[in-house]
Amino acid sequence: MMQLTAEHCPAPVPPSGSRGIDEILGAARARLDRLDPERAHLAYRTGALLVDIRPAAQRAAHGMVPGSLVVERNVLEWRFDPRCPARLPQAVDYDVPVVILCQEGYTSSLAAAALQDIGLHRATDVAGGFAAWRIAGLPALGPTPLHRTAPLAPPVITGRARH
User: Fold this and answer.
1) In a designed cystine with 112, which of 6, 14, 121, 123 is the match (CB 3.0 to 4.6 A)?
2) What is the per-residue pLDDT across 51-108, written as a single tens digit (0 to 9) for each?
3) If phi over 0 gives left and psi between -120 and 50 gives alpha, with beta otherwise, what is residue 98?
4) Given CA atoms 41, 43, 44, 46 in this order, what sign does their dihedral have?
């Protein structure tokens, strides 16, 4: 039996005025001065807030950047809007440099554009996300990579086995 996937189903006709996610992502990225991991690390070291928006499960599975500020995506705008009573103490004004980090650099682009919509004009993201950060060899904590160890030697049997 063939598994039914989106590629096997006809796409519905989109409503007038709607945009697909690829168009939305492209428009978001056109507004950003996206940073490669090395530039993001430099920005962080010189005072930018590096904000990890990944859910706890992704941070546990892949690791995180030491000192990054964890603000999950579902509350990001409320935590960084200087007008909002639920804002973080770091959300002091609209000139705060914020660099958003997600796992692969897609959701972070949308999140950085949302912060720009609020007025944080210096918000941007890390191209390639945490995966690219890790590949670049930049500081990261956990998880401990699994290492293959030599197979265990078979147990030594002393005496004769009894049946």
Assistant:
1) 123
2) 999 999 999 999 999 999 999 999 999 999 999 999 999 999 999 999 999 999 999 9
3) beta
4) positive
pTM of the model: 0.81
Half-sphere exposure of 24 (CA within 13 A, CB side): 13
CA 155 vs CA 31, 88, 110, 122: distances in Å: 63, 58, 56, 62
Joined together, the tokens standing for residue 120 give: 């944080």
Exposure b/e, 1-27, CB count within 10 A at least 16 = b: eeeeeeeeeeeeeeeeeeeeeeeebee
Q: How far is CA 8 from the centre of its chain?
A: 30
Per-residue DSSP letter, 7: G
Cα–Cα distance, 103 to 126 (Å, whole number): 10
Residue 153: half-sphere exposure toward Cβ, Cα within 13 Å: 3
